């Protein structure tokens, strides 16, 4: 009379009575699918993508400023005055409630601004002719590619291997230098460089501190207003891009993540040590 087999164990040396390719029904009893998977609502996805639409709108407004300078349809003094006004209002929101320490910071910041403006105005004739020998078509194509990389590598508040504040900032400034050579006078180039500094350097500091999703609405409305006076085709492209990014992409992400994503967990996973603070939070 044959002896019954020993119960199968997850131990290679105690399963000599079983075939090498034998799989016990209890082998996958500890398998977990989508364990602790964080699910998102469509509203959360919609609000999270507003920063992308905001940057696209800001870059579009920057190109609109260049267009008016390039066509000489708006005086550069008007653009410079309006940019200083908007920057001043944004700076007041940035510093918040005034006090003695903030007053000292305002004085130091004012000195820095004056120094930068003087250097920029002094070197604007050089920057105006820096890429003068390159054809206009090449400049416009290069600017489009550089601004695409600016949007791709911009910090939207999520860590990623493509995120780089330094490279994104350099792309924004480099695009303005390329476009400055297409303008008629060094003063036009100076105004464009001032606007680019406000858009690519100062604006991220302000929005990082006080950005809210509803702030996208006035930015989009202003962009639509100015695009409508330039080209209806560009307006359609802009609105189509916003629709795809703000409506279609959140819907696809939320549906694919919540319904099609599969994470398999089990005893074979690496052991993770949870600190006491994280354990208390959970």
Model description:
It comes from Polypedilum vanderplanki (Sleeping chironomid midge). It holds the Pfam family GPI2. This is Phosphatidylinositol N-acetylglucosaminyltransferase subunit C. Its main location: membrane. Pathway: Glycolipid biosynthesis; glycosylphosphatidylinositol-anchor biosynthesis. The chain is mostly helical and 282 residues long. The chain has one domain (42-258). It contains ten helices and two strands, in the order βαααααααααβα. The protein has helices at 42-48, 50-71, 76-95, 100-128, 136-153, 165-180, 186-210, 216-228, 232-260, 276-281; strands at residues 32-33, 264-265. A two-stranded antiparallel sheet has the order 1-2. Helix 2 packs antiparallel against helix 7 and helix 6 runs antiparallel to helix 7 (186-210). The longest helix is centred in the middle third of the chain and has 29 residues, at 100-128. The model has no long low-confidence stretch (mean pLDDT 80).
